[in-house]
Write a structure and sequence with these properties.
By secondary structure, this protein is an alpha/beta fold. 34% of the residues lie in helices and 21% in strands.
């Protein structure tokens, strides 16, 4: 019988391999698919992504069209802040964060895909930024010391991680007391059809790895965060020409007429001022 650890490792390797491929894809291909994975849609161009182009710091070469929100727009980053971006990809959110944090701030991008780290470092070098760095590592065990970040951001990444609770523990650890996060992610209301939920490619495509919205918010609270709020929410409509790769006609009709919803949410939460490295019985 396969252990959960074994299953988690397999899922993470699927994501690593897929995002190594995605690093070499065109932005247009990524935007017309689910987070860059799965087949591209001819019905809809932007399935999940929001438009970054008007944000200060936007860098076209670093925009792979993989996000599902604009967390940096809501992150309340101030001059001089230390910002950590989880699943930093080619670096776009880091460069937007740097525009807010300024020359006196520091931005650290963390990604576990070597191809993404290489792409991000190349982009940072081209831009001449000496206060933006990219570290290869697992966001369940961040290569960062405790109580160092003023802000943590992430764009459509936690849903790719099997152990979401472990990531939230790490976010709590690296944030300074009183500091906060702003994270965009994909969540569900209702159950996905088995064919979507079990498909490995749709896991890498940000959909089958998503959990229930209530469970997601509960995990944040259980890990000791306070002042939790949803900054933005929008439905995600997966086009028929992608869904038909996984669902037959009957299942597709049932899914579209059912109560299941797929949403992008941007969530804000704070580490309490008196917060130490860990809080709550589930966090220690």
């Amino acid at each position: 019988m396969e252990t959960k650890l074994g299953t988690d490792d397999k899922l993470k390797e699927i994501v690593r391999q897929k995002y190594s491929e995605i690093a070499l894809q065109d932005k247009e291909d990524n935007q017309a698919s689910c987070c860059g994975a799965g087949g591209c849609s001819t019905e809809v161009y932007n399935i999940m992504t929001d438009d970054y182009t008007n944000l200060n710091g936007y860098t076209a070469d670093a925009d792979l069209g993989l996000g599902c929100g604009l967390p940096t727009q809501f992150a309340k980053i101030k001059q001089g802040d230390t910002v950590i971006d989880l699943g930093s990809g080619a670096g776009n959110d880091c460069f937007v964060a740097r525009a807010e944090a300024g020359d006196t701030g520091k931005v650290i991008g963390i990604d576990f895909t070597p191809a993404m780290i290489a792409k991000a470092r190349t982009n940072a070098e081209k831009l001449g930024y000496n206060n933006v760095e990219f570290r290869q590592g697992d966001i369940e065990s961040m290569p960062v010391t405790s109580n160092v970040a003023d802000v943590v951001v992430s764009n459509c990444v936690l849903n790719l991680v099997p152990n979401k609770n472990g990531v939230l523990k790490e976010i709590y650890r690296v944030l300074k007391p009183g500091a906060h996060f702003s994270i965009s992610d994909v969540v569900l209301v209702g159950e996905l059809p088995d064919a979507l939920r079990k498909d490995a490619e749709m896991y890498a495509g940000c959909v089958s790895g998503a959990i229930q919205k209530k469970d997601y918010l509960d995990l944040i609270a259980v890990n000791g965060f306070v002042n939790v709020s949803i900054q933005k929410e929008k439905p995600i409509i997966i086009p028929d020409d992608i869904l038909t790769n996984y669902l037959n006609e009957t299942d597709l009709k049932s899914f579209k007429n059912g109560a299941t919803g797929i949403y992008s949410i941007t969530v804000y939460a704070e580490k309490p001022l008196g917060g130490n490295v860990c809080a709550g019985p589930e966090c220690c």
